[in-house]
Amino acid sequence: MGARHVVAGAALALLVTGCGGRRAVELNPDQAVVGSRWNAILATPAGLAGVVQVQGEAWMGAGTTPGQTIASVTIRNAAPGGEHPWHVHRGQCGNDLGIFGPADAYGQLDVGSSGSASATATLPVPLPDSGAYMVNVHASRANMGTIIACGNLAPPIR
User: Fold this and answer.
1) Using 50, 70 and 90 to split pLDDT, how confident is the model at 35?
2) pTM, two decimal places
3) Of 106, 153, 125, whose CA–CA distance to 63 is shortest?
C-alpha cells in the first residue's frame, strides 16, 4: 500500500471518529492531490490590519525548460490603480532571507478597477525541492519596505 493510501486512510479514520461516527467527508485515495507546485495563501500582515486587507494566492512550479521556475501571484481587495512589486523570497513571512532568483525577473501587479491583479514571472533558476519560501507584495516601488501581503509557500506533496 502506498504512502498516499495510508495517509488518506488515516485522515478518513480521523474524520469518521472525530464526527461521532458520522461520515463528514469521504476521501478517495486514488484522487489525492499530489503535485509539483509550491502554494501559498496571501494575507495582509497583522500590523496593517484595518488599513489594508489584501488577500490572494501564489504558487511556484517548474518552468517549461530545465533549470527554470515559474512563479505566479494573484491579489484581491487592493486599491484600484495600485502598482505593487512582488517577489518570491527565501525564508518565511517576517523572516526575509532575500529574493529567490533575479529581482528584475519579476514584474509588478497592476491593480484594476475591481481591486484585483495577477502576474507571472519566469525565473532562470531551478525549482527548489526543499527549503522555506514566501511571496511578498510590496506597497510600491518607492516603499519596498512595507509589505501589504505575504504568504508562506508550502512545498509540493511528493
Assistant:
1) low
2) 0.75
3) 125
